[in-house]
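[job 0412] stage=complex_fold ligand=FE2/S2 (inorganic) cluster status=START
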Amino acid sequence: MTTVQSLDIHRGAAKQRMADNGTPQKPVVIFMPSGRRGRTAPGTPLLDAARDAGVEIESICGGRIVCGKCKVRIEDGHFSKHNITSSKANVTPVGADEAAYLEEHGLDGYRLSCACRVTGDVLVSVPEESQARKQVVRKRAEERAIELDPAVRQHYVEIAPPLLEAPRGDWERLQDALAEQWDLHDLTLDPTLLRDLQSRLRDGKWNATVTLWHNREVLDVRPGYAEGAYGLAVDIGSTTIAGHLVDLRTGAILATESMMNPQVTYGEDLMSRVSYAMEHDDGLNVMHRAVIKALNTLAGRAVAQAGLKISDVYEAVLVGNTVMHHILLGIDPVELGNAPFALAIEDALDVKARDLGLRLNTAANVHVLPLVAGHVGADNVGVFLAEAPHQQDVLELIIDIGTNGEILLGNREQVLSASSPTGPAFEGAQISHGMRAAPGAIERVRIDPDTREPRFKIIGDERWSNEWPADGAGEGVRASGICGSGIIEAVAELYLAGIIRADGRIDPANEHPRVVREGRRASYLLATAEETSTGQPIFVTQLDVRNIQLGKAALYAGAKLLMNRMGVEQVERIKLAGAFGSYISPLHAMVLGMIPNCPLGDVYAVGNAAGDGARIALLNVARRAEAPQNARWIKYVETAVEPEFQQEFVAAMHLPHMSDPFPALADVLPEPVSDSRPSRRR
Ligand code: FES
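[job 0412] stage=complex_fold status=DONE, emitting structure tokens
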């Protein structure tokens, strides 16, 4: 490694202590916050001393005082805990190039570790942003951090110019530079790069920033120093597509976008998409093109939101259920429609984005996580990566709520998985006033058990509707529909208030003015015309309740099937995952009977765990490499051919359940009465 720093080794060397044998003792260097320490020969660049001590400091430019990623702080004073007296004078002074960089970038108080050499004992603070394998702490306190080690990395190199007397191709000389300066060998080049390689090297005056994938394929060569590599982590759900744009160097989420899956037009659930592919000659292509177009739109929106260009995106990790996976890759999903539900491929895949029609960087890679079985897909593997049930002692039930419910049950002994055909009701579809979680959507509902009058909260307004001014929510925000968390709470509250019975029927004996009947069809008026943006009232209809019952019964039956297989009657912890998972009220989910009994304090939402899993695979190659083993270790239970599933499903149609007890809801649930009409307890 070369540095452009003038040396003043002797000044520091004079201060060295002597060892017992009379030889000068090497200076001690301690790196914080890790506390790692080592002795290093005087004159060693601090960046190298760090590496020798097992501390990885960021460096894109390889010590050329170009990137500034290696900045550290040299501490002054005596640190008795570490038994060291550290001084800024114990490294070589700031040279002209370093001074220019520090001044230009306002890095007062820092040194570039590549530019200063050790002359005496120093205690060095390495800020978070300078740590090469920094940890990205996910939002929830109990979550594990992600160690940053992405497949895409950038290196700055100086390439030897061509010589008449020693002819050698530009690519070959670039390889020489990468081998010499970064110890990178046996590289390949994305062939599309060759068109511009020569001009880019010359534009950079033989300096370039090279983007590599898995340190084996060159994806991009940019003139001069030009850092910036980004990735997309996307969960392709049957109804909703949700993605994060991530900075691959820092792990920061720069933008989050979600949109409806346009394939909904061709069928709302998985089996109807399979049918569409079977029944239409061009069905597969139509759905494939639709999802690719949606992903391009999502990527375009995300980079625009972050102020980047689409060519800055070098990798995408995609997860989805098995049908979404096959259609994404242009594989006919017909075999997934019938037993034995054979997959075309279960292993993880790497394909060029351009081969799928995805518009990212021309050379960008798409990594698709592996599948578990016919109905348990890469999204389930994503949930597994994010929540790691195989590292838990307690028996954990993880339910990923979407149009297809993905269920994991287990701990470090074993993990079972199943998939339940939930239907799209929890995502706001098949609900008469359903909508996606967007401003104006009703997301919280309470119904007074005495007056049976409702109040609700909409996304975009912190107030309950009964606190709104008389002319509506004010500032133009009014209710425009009900999203998934809202409909879950609405149905659960209707049950608790005695408006619907345990069998799900709106009580025919109920004469409340909010209960509106049209012939034999009854509905509950949740928001009046004055409270909505459309001027039309919002109802929860009998059919809505029915669709929610079908969805929740499928989830419960899937979970129960796995519990039966494992021989357990109780789980110790329940995690609710899904694009809107963070917003689901555990209490209402249990009142509805979406989930089995569990102490309420041990039921919590974990957000879009499948998308988090995709992000983990994007940011850490080791975790990505583990995913195929994880997928093979999970034991799959097929619900579609299981008679027990049907029995459990029928019993789970009741609110919360026909026979299973819910001691955790003892203080909340209505007391059962003989005609299945609840009597109010609260
Ligand atoms: S490694 Fe780039 S400035 Fe030090």
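The longest helix spans residues 542-566.
[job 0412] exit 0
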